[in-house]
Amino acid sequence: MAPNKRSLGYEFIKGLFKENPVLVQLLGLCSVLAVSNAVINSISMGLSVLFVLFFSSFVIALIKDFVPNEVRIPVYIIVIATFVTIADLFLRAKFPDISKALGPYIPLIVVNCIIMGRQEAFTKKNKLLPSIMDALGMSLGYILTIVTMGIIRELLGFGSIFGYKILGSWYKPILVMILPPGAFLTLALLIGFMNFVTKKE
Amino acid sequence: MNKEFKMVFVLTLVIVIAGGILAYTYVATQRDIEKNLENAKKKALLAVVNGTSDYQEVKINDHASIFAAKDAQGNVIGYGVMIEGAGFQGPIKVMVGFNNDGSEVLGIEILENVETPGLGNRIVEDWFKKQFAGKTPPIEVLKGKTPETKSQIQAITGATISSRSVANIVNAAAQALRNYLSGAGGASTEKDLQTSFANCFPNAKLEKAGNYYLIKGKENTLIGYGVISKALGYSDTISILLAMDKDLKKILGIIPLAGEVMSERTKFDGFLKSLINKAVPLKLSDLDVASGATVTQDAIVSAINNGYENLKKEIK
């Protein structure tokens, strides 16, 4: 394992499928299960995670050499919590409806394992550029998964995408898809599909 | 030693910088956040009381506010009650519009709910909300039957509890508005009243006469009249005993009974004393209003003026 020798492109692309944070590493499941009942919520949550992960990795990569090993975890948490609070305040000021729909899950990004996990597993040991690529890749992997779940659940549960009716009046919405059990079912099927594909390769 | 110092230094530095950034973001976004909250309230009020162009908010407690909805000329055309109550899965926040005397529901708007999507969540649907318009509270929820009276609505199929919760919240809103309009709340016992009175007027006694009191001095000569009056203050309803001379021309004294005039008595003592011998009805512009507690002082003045009106009616 010598991560420094891998190309920047690899650091980016690995988060999408091979090391997808949700489907392969099974991190950050709480928010994925909770807010993926509509596409717009999924996208807002995904973008918030992207914002927080990108800037946290960026700042931590810059300051990690000055931070003594013993206090690195509190420092990481402060940096992450700062960006989460900024994202939360921004959404509340500019997009109050989305902020209301996401509820407590924005503040809870602080404890999303993907973000802390990437700092410990990657940024700590790597330089600025690879860390940024890693953060972008992981965030996009997260967005891809949560939005896919949002599309499946909203389509089956409401018959709509982005709130627009896609399926006609003949379609009787499967209510369970937008309820918590629907989240578990969809996630399980996606993880199963992912395993099926990777096994074949 | 050096390493320990570095740990403390780095952690402190990071916290100070993060604190600075957060303080800046907070200040930069706060105005928009408050505006959003205000807009949400205004939008809901407009939806439930048609023709509102301005409003005045009175906070009842942490879970309820009453809005006096005014038209372009400043006349009160109805009231909005924003109130929170228990739903099936969590709190439901509703804005309920009422007509001028609070006897009829004009409309409702669901502001917040966490009911089951597709079932309880259907309380936000128009047909359900529209059922409340024109109804007289207390409202009763019927299951599977068509409403017959002006106090009945039909439950959502499969979401009886959520439907009933909304009806209960609307009924609570009606109660809160009734309390507000009648100035109830903050009741005090007859004994407390006598004690407070004796402290203020050691040489007189208070005799109940229907809805008002007679104030008598030595040898039972009539000195004046007293009346209990209430008004909505800053945090709760205030209640005072207004004592007036027998010609109902001037104030003999004001005895605080309940509410913030009572709990923060020292703060308002000077103001209450300054009102003695003043002619009623009081005008706010003629008074020496201390800054910082204007809402309470407004309430005291309106309680005095209302008390005077009531007393005038009673004695005639």
Overview of the structural elements:
The complex is a heterodimer of chains A (201) and B (316). Chain A is mostly helical and 201 residues long. Chain A has one domain. In chain A, 64% of the residues lie in helices and 2% in strands. Chain A contains eight helices and two strands. A two-stranded antiparallel ribbon of chain A has the order 1-2. Chain A is globular, with a radius of gyration of 18 Å. The model of chain A has no long low-confidence stretch (mean pLDDT 88). Chain B has 316 residues and is of the alpha+beta class. In chain B, the strands form three sheets. A five-stranded antiparallel sheet of chain B has the order 1-2-3-4-5, sandwiched between helices. In chain B, strands 8-9-10-11-12 form a five-stranded antiparallel sheet. Chain A: Its EC number is 7.-.-.-. Chain A: One of its GO terms (biological process) is electron transport chain. Chain A: Pfam families: Rnf-Nqr (PF02508). Chain A: It is found in: Cell membrane; Endomembrane system. Chain A: The complex is composed of six subunits: RnfA, RnfB, RnfC, RnfD, RnfE and RnfG.
Structurally, the number of domains of chain B stands at 2
Q: Uncertain spans of chain B, ≥5 residues at pLDDT below 50?
A: none
Into which percentage range does the β-strand content of chain B fall?
Answer: 25-35%
Strand order of the largest sheet of chain A: 1-2
Work out the largest interface and the residue count of each chain.
A-B, 27 and 23 residues
What is the number of strand segments of chain A? 2
The structural class of chain A is mainly alpha
Distance between the termini of chain A: 22 Å
Proportion of β residues of chain A? under 5%
Helical amount among residues of chain B, as a percent range?
A: 25-40%
Main beta sheet strand tally, sense and closure of chain B: 5 strands, antiparallel
Order of H and E elements of chain B: HEEEEEHEEHHEEEEEHHH
Q: How many DSSP-defined strands of chain B?
A: 12
Which regions of chain A have little confidence, pLDDT < 50, spanning 5+ residues? none
**If helices are DSSP runs of H or I spanning 4 or more residues, what is the number of helices of chain A?**
8
Pfam family, one (chain A): Rnf-Nqr
Organism (chain A): candidate division CPR3 bacterium
Membrane topology (chain A): Multi-pass membrane protein
Keywords (chain A): Cell membrane, Electron transport, Membrane, Translocase, Transmembrane, Transmembrane helix, Transport
